[in-house]
Amino acid sequence: EKGTYEHYMLKEINDQPAAMRKIIQEYQDENGELSIDTEIMDQINDADRVYIIAAGTSYHAGLIGKEYFEKWAGIPTEVHVASEFVYNTPLLSKRPLFVFISQSGETADSRAVLVEVKRLGHKTLTVTNVPGSTLSREADQTLILHAGPEIAVASTKAYTAQIAVLAILAQVAARALGRETGINLTEELAKVTTAITTVIDDAETIEGIVHEYLETTRNAFFIGRAMDHYVGLEGALKLKEISYIQAEGFAGGELKHGTIALIEEGTPVFALATQEKVNLNIRGNAQEVQARGANVCTIAMEGLESENDAYVIPNVHSMLTPLVSVVVYQFISYYAALHRGNDVDKPRNLAKSVTVE
Ligand code: F6R
C-alpha cells in the first residue's frame, strides 16, 4: 500500500532506511555478527571467480558488488549484462560461481543464463527480493533482499538492498578467508541508514535542484569516477525511464574522448564527488565541461565538498557512499518526472518485470 504517499516510487524511496535496518537484522546471528548460510559460504569458498549476471538497475548494483568481492574478499569478479552473456559467453574460469541479481526473480534474460550455466554444471546463487520466484527456485541457493514489495516500475529500494546484501556477503566471505577489511560493516551500515534519512529529510532541497537544472532540458549527463561512475549510470537510467530526459552516465575521465562534443551552453551535468582518491580528478572533469558552458551540479560528500556544490551528503564509509548518493538521484528523477506531468509509477513502454528475452 502506498498509504499517504502520492506515488509508490516516493514511498519506496522513503522505505529505504527501514529496509536497511531489516537487512542488518535478517543477516545477523544471535551474537550480533553478520552471517550467511553455510551452504552459500561453501559455494563462495569453492569458487575461483564470481560471475554476476543481471539487467538494468540490478546490473548497476552488481558493478558495486564487484568492488566488495574484489576489495574485501579478494575474489576475482566479473559483472555481465544477462542478455549479452547468453549469446556471447566469455571464457570461464575453472570453478565459477554465478550470482544472479534480480529484484523480481523473473527476468527472462537472466533466466536464460541460469538455464545455460546449469546445463554446463556450474554453481548458482540468486539474490532476489521475491522468495519463490523463478530465479530463486531454479538456482542452487538464494539470498533474500528483505526490501519489501517494490511496486513502482523504477527500482529504488531494491537497488540499495542489493548493494547492502552484496556487501554483507563479501564481508562474511572476507572473514571466512581470514582477510582483514578494516571495516565494521554493521556499524557502517547503521551510519548509512542515518545518512539516507538525512537525504530523505532534504527532499525539498533536492526538488530545488530539479527546478534549477532540469526543468526544460532535453538531455543531461552524469559523471563520476570509481564507484561514483557506477552510481552515475544508475542516476542516468532512473532519469531516462521516468522523466524521458535523454541521459548518459560516464566515467569522468572518458568525456574528453568524444562525448564532451555534446556539451553546449546550459547542458546539465551532474558530477558526483564522494571518493577522496579521485576528488581532484572529478573536480577537474567538472571544470572541463563547465568551461564549455555546462550547467554543472556537483553532489559531494561531507569532508570533500567545495564552495559551489549543489548538495552535500553526510559522510559515510567510502565503500558505502553509493547507498546514500543514489538516493539524491532517485529524488532528482522523481521530481523531474513529476514536474513534467509523467506517470511516475508506470512510465511508458515499460513493465515491472521483463519476462521476455
Ligand atoms: C530500472 C529497472 C530495471 C530492472 C531490470 C531488472 O529502474 O527497474 O532496469 O532493474 O529490468 O529487473 P530485475 O531486477 O527484476 O531482474
What would you say this structure looks like, in words?
Catalyzes the first step in hexosamine metabolism, converting fructose-6P into glucosamine-6P using glutamine as a nitrogen source. Its main location: cytoplasm. The active site is at residue 352. It is found in: Cytoplasm. It comes from Salinicoccus kekensis. The chain is α/β, with parallel strands linked by helices. It is built from 13 helices and 10 strands. It has helices at 8-14, 16-26, 38-46, 56-71, 82-87, 108-119, 134-138, 157-176, 185-201, 203-213, 227-243, 279-290, 322-339; strands at 49-54, 77-81, 96-102, 123-128, 141-144, 219-224, 246-251, 268-273, 295-301, 311-313. Strands 2-1-3-4-5 form a 5-stranded parallel beta sheet, sandwiched between helices. Strand 4 (123-128), helix 7 (134-138) and strand 5 form a beta-alpha-beta unit. Helix 4 packs parallel to helix 8 (157-176) and helix 10 (203-213) crosses helix 13 (322-339). The longest helix has 20 residues, at 157-176. The two termini are 30 Å apart. The structure holds fructose -6-phosphate (F6R).
